[in-house]
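Anyone up for a design puzzle?
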């Protein structure tokens, strides 16, 4: 716990709350990149992507899967609002499915009542997510480059 507290205080005291930046400029320390690298090594994975919240993670997954305008995404009728709102934010259509005693989607209801069968398995969906990030390197490199700073400066200076 002491190590985590030290790392947290280091970020707060140096006002280094942004994910991307240039090391050494404006106190940027690259803590997230270091964290991702260490977790990837610990798990034995080539890549790890940290997000600020579950909602952001859901958005990233939906984008990586190519979910967009008019796509239907089945969600349990008993869920947290982010499960539905992220789908709507991608201009897709959330489709509520009945739940069973476990409070999760009842797969028999999906087939029987909605007549829906999955186009993609979970495993294929994860591979698609990773491929999206690999194939959209320019998108995330623009973020990493620090060009976002001009935007933040215009938007938030002297507020």
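Challenge accepted. My sequence:
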């Amino acid at each position: 716990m002491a190590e985590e507290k030290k790392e947290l205080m280091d970020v707060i005291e140096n006002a280094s709350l942004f994910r991307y930046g240039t090391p050494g400029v404006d106190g940027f320390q690259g803590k997230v990149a270091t964290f991702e690298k260490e977790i990837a090594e610990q798990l034995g994975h080539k890549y790890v992507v940290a997000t600020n919240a579950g909602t952001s993670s859901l958005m990233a997954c939906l984008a990586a899967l190519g979910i967009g305008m008019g796509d239907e995404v089945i969600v349990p009728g008993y869920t947290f609002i982010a499960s539905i709102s992220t789908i709507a934010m991608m201009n897709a259509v959330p489709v509520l499915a009945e739940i069973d005693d476990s409070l999760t989607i009842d797969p028999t209801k999906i087939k029987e009542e909605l007549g829906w069968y999955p186009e993609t398995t979970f495993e294929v969906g994860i591979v698609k997510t990773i491929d999206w990030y690999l194939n959209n390197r320019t998108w995330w490199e623009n973020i990493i480059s620090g060009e976002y700073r001009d935007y933040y400066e215009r938007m938030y200076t002297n507020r």
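A detail worth pointing out: The first strand starts at residue 72 and ends at 76.
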